[in-house]
User: What shape does this take?
Amino acid sequence: MTGARNTIASHILSPNSDMLIAIIGAGNVGSTLGRRFGEAGHAVVYGVRSPTDPKHAGLPVETISGAAAAADVVILTTS
Assistant: This one.
């Protein structure tokens, strides 16, 4: 694993995860996709502008660039 992937993946990936998916945006579409990918066995990290914002409490969030750099797949769900 490379730098960003190693740092982020180490606390998100589990031995049962197939891949790490970064979802850019944690709104209605992004959170729904993230939940469904998680149910399918994938690890999910959300890329958001302000990872410390309380509205993201309980979600695995990173900066947009950090999430994208660590992921196997990146999905853009912003308008």
User: Anything to note?
Assistant: The chain is about 35% helix and 25% strand. The mean pLDDT is 87. The first helix runs from residue 3 to 12. The radius of gyration is 11 Å.
